[in-house]
Amino acid sequence: MLARGRRWQNWGRVESADPVHVARPTSVDEAIDVVGRARELGLPVKAIGAGHSFTAIAVAPGIQVDVSALDGVLDVDAELRRVTLGAGTNLYQVPALLAPHGLAMENLGDIDRQTIAGATSTGTHGTGGRFRGLAAQLVGATLVTADGGILRVSGTENAELLPAVRLGLGALGILVDVTVQCVPAFALHALEQPEPMDRVLDDFEDRVDSADHFEFYWFPHTETVLTKTNTRLPADAPLHPLGRARRWVDDSLMANGLFALTCGTGRTIPAAIPGINRLASRLTGDREFTDVSTSVFTTQRSVRFREMEYAIPRHLVPDAVRAIRALIDSRGWRISFPIEVRAAAADDLWLSTANGRDTGYIAVHRYWRENHLEYFHAVEDILRGFGGRPHWGKIHFQDAESLSSLYPGFADFRAVRNRLDPDRVFANPYLERVLGA
């Protein structure tokens, strides 16, 4: 059941682990056995997904549990449009699993490599002022708990735990399945175009309110942003997808191949970055198409990077972006990666970055071969001044003391953790830092 541990790295190559043992349960009973064996050995347990978190949330110094074999559709409630998925189901698998039932997830982020359990447990979200993050789409979940029991949480079973379990950081147990509230399948009309940065910032709240899904990217050292506006359409609306050749040029050649080259060039010749960014802002975007929702929401990302993202009250986004622009100018930095700005509706999950407030998200990135620390620390200082909450799966430098005042449900979550895992079977150094021992 337990194999010899082997070195693990996350996708961003910023975190690694050398677990004592690894396990890959193929059933719930095997997951229960793993927890029992861990208690016998006195080792902590940490479930991992696809390794797309940039923080150390998935670092497993004891027993690393790979849940990828716990995947696929387990149950469908056609009347309520609810689908139960194995926790190890990757988001890129979900469209094909839901299509036979005429269903889709309400909203998605732009990367689909994560597992459904990993994405919801870390607070992954998409964009759209009326749409909540992925964890808020869950209406139920099943956990293997620290005592080797099974805990089912839903609207009718242990409902008081839903605000904690839907976004649980992996701190409450091993998720083995989740139940998603789906919606009828739909299409999206996508309009992507470059626009003047200051105009978009001035109109940011109106743009979010008037569109189903709105976001923009800003390449530092330019005065232009790439806006993306998606409008929801019925599933039977006429589709006008990008042709294979255009998609290859845009997404493979430009967004990944050429971008990798420019990042490498910028690393060795930083003075070239402003010119490269101006060229990139002219060559990317400026397209219009209609396709099934998942083909519009998600993109392929092969250029490796590191990321920090903060959630702030939505109306403060323009001021925060301008403050970051001023910071970059004042420090004389050369930043090759764009800054991404999105929005989401408020929710009631205790550790959600959107808890209790309509939220704007600002994400900064660095090429993985560049040192990100000075840039990220300085941007974090700015965003903390705007009441920022860090994305749990992306790099940040806060701890339990500073985080406790940001979340109305922080103490409630820690109380549930103490109840479900008093001996810290599912602890690791990251959770000790952000939640306390």
From TrEMBL:
Entry annotated with the keyword Oxidoreductase: yes
Listed transmembrane segments: none
Entry-linked InterPro entries: ALO_C, FAD-bd_PCMH, FAD-bd_PCMH-like_sf, FAD-bd_PCMH_sub1, FAD-bd_PCMH_sub2, FAD_lactone_oxidase-like, Oxid_FAD_bind_N, Vanillyl_alc_oxidase_C-sub2
Protein's UniProt name: FAD-binding protein
Organism: Terrimesophilobacter mesophilus
Name of a matching Pfam family: ALO
Highest taxon, organism lineage: Bacteria
Domain FAD-binding PCMH-type: 15-185
Keyword vocabulary terms for this entry: Oxidoreductase
Gene Ontology CC, one term: membrane
GO MF annotations, alphabetized: D-arabinono-1,4-lactone oxidase activity; FAD binding; L-gulono-1,4-lactone dehydrogenase activity
